[in-house]
Amino acid sequence: MPSLNLHLKDNSILTKYRILTLAFALAASSLIVGCSKTATAPANAKLATNTTSSDSSASSSGHSEAKPGDPQSSLELLIQGNERYVSGSFQPRDLSKAKLEELSKGQHPHTIIVTCSDSRVSPELLFDQSQGDIFVIRTAGNVLDKASMGSIEYAAEHLHSSLIMVVGHEKCGAVTAATTDEPAGGNIQYVVNEIKPAVAKARKLGGDLVAKSVDENVKLVVETLPGRSQILSNLIRENKLKIAGSTYSISSGKINIISGLDESPIVEEKKDETKPQKKG
Ligand SMILES: [Zn+2]
């Protein structure tokens, strides 16, 4: 039967491919043991061919070695990743068994990404990050609810991610819906209502209402995050967490930082707790 023969032939090729992949992985792992700087040796050679020689410096600080650190380092990892995405020079993906085993022991995402569910806005791609690098929360219009707040709190408190990056995007359907007075229907109305205050601010600014609303919606989320969470405000006060905001251009692939680390919300020390008690 031709189909069976073809199937067996495919399996044979697959087996050979697996042997080659295993051999390559073993060779790569021996390199890793010999030299820690080559720890990004690719298990997937096809993806590795996209990497130019100029990326060797980036790989030493790139996603494969990403760990929770300071917010500035986390931000730089995202910016460098987006630059690779825009230029088409993706870092090699380490999808080896060893890497998966390492990931099975725990996760240490350097950044929490809060962005839209839009199918054209894939954080791991547009920031060129890999498994374990970023903790992602996606809702239409990057609006927040209790489930998304709980997710952010979990990553910030228990996984020690040092940066929250809010990412809005060009031509966001949820934001566009919020610029009209049309009833959205169902639970979509909740999403629209959450964005309305940003649209009201954008109207006062003039210009392209949707684009300005996208910006204001990002800023609104950045500004209101600490007030929605005692856990986040504590971490911000302790200088363990910062919040930045950006927009993503679907047409160019570029991330534009519209609220940098200098604009990260500040949470003041509680003064009442340090009041000396009166002697009785
Ligand atoms: Zn959107």
Q: How are the SSEs ordered, and which strands pair?
A:
Blueprint: H1 2-34, H2 45-48, H3 56-59, H4 71-87, H5 97-104, E1 111-115, H6 123-126, E2 134-138, H7 146-158, E3 163-169, H8 173-178, H9 188-205, H10 209-224, H11 230-237, E4 242-248, E5 255-259
Parallel strand pairs: 1-2, 1-3, 3-4
Antiparallel strand pairs: 4-5
The structure holds zinc ion.
Offer a few descriptive terms.
binds zinc ion, 2 domains, single chain, alpha/beta, five-stranded mixed beta sheet, 11 helices, 280 residues, 5 strands, disordered N terminus, globular, Beta-carbonic Anhydrase, Chain A
Descriptive notes:
This protein is of the alpha/beta class and 280 residues long. The chain has two domains: 2-38; 53-263, Carbonic anhydrase (Beta-carbonic Anhydrase, Chain A, 3-Layer(aba) Sandwich), CATH 3.40.1050. 47% of the residues lie in helices and 10% in strands. The protein has helices at residues 2-34, 45-48, 56-59, 71-87, 97-104, 123-126, 146-158, 173-178, 188-205, 209-224, 230-237; strands spanning 111-115, 134-138, 163-169, 242-248, 255-259. A five-stranded mixed beta sheet has the order 2-1-3-4-5, sandwiched between helices. Strand 4 (242-248) and strand 5 form a beta hairpin. Helix 9 crosses helix 10 (209-224). The longest helix is centred in the N-terminal third of the chain and has 33 residues, at 2-34. Residues 1-66 have low confidence and may be disordered. Zinc ion is lined by residues 116, 118, 141, 169, 172-174. Zinc ion binds next to helix 8.
